[in-house]
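On clarity, I found the account of how folds are encoded harder to follow than it need be. For illustration, here is how one protein appears when written out as sequence plus structure tokens:

:::
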Amino acid sequence: MFAPLLLLQARRTARRTPRLDPASGADRGIIPGAVPLLRVVVIGESTAAGVGASQHAEALPGYLAGALSDRRDCGVTWTAVGKNGATARKVFRELVPALNGASPDIVVITVGINDLIRRRPLRSWSLDLTALVAALRGRYDHAQVIVAGMPPVHRFPALPQPLRTVMGARARAMDRIMREVARTYGALHVPMDPAMAADPGLFASDGFHPSPAGYRVWAQDLANALDSRIEHGIVPSNGNGAVHAPGTANGSAVEAVRGVVASAVAVDVRERPS
């Protein structure tokens, strides 16, 4: 019975939300420091493209490079490979091939919000994400692949109720799938702290994307998660701050992903408005 209201709210929100441009300037840079350099690539949707910031250096790639340089006392190169509006499938098909020649130590994947907006079926979302993570793990088997978790959509100031609650529930189902796919393929899933959404200053003017301050906080969280993974011996450091992830998925791990997808689909059906 909520479907007409949700559709109305979604259309009204789309009309009223300002459309921000991706970050301008160089899509790669370097934080000077000791050698050997740590090489970071951020690939994905609008957040990888720096929407909400004026320069990539003030978005996720630049701030993450700075955070890693501070922690490891080394130089860090960063590269942003993002496309506004990209789904996980588009990132896999169009942006991964564009990485030819890159040899990153850390790859950060930011996808999900566009699949959420387009209401990509959860089974299809799982397949798209699996293809993306597996491709990057296979291409860069020496690198640590980080899957950035879904944002706290249930707290987005740009979304009215009950649209916010419905989209938030689906985003959490998608995040559970992200966590299991990452675990299966030896990547690191880093959930986004819901507390970020409590501070309006961490949002850009559209109420969807991070502001430069939001990108800085997010980058610190990703760097902290990577540090914790190394300190707890889950993956070893290679000496210059990079980490090596475990190998490819086995049969039982793939079955675990399927189980999580089935559970998420069941929850999604129960929570979907009639």
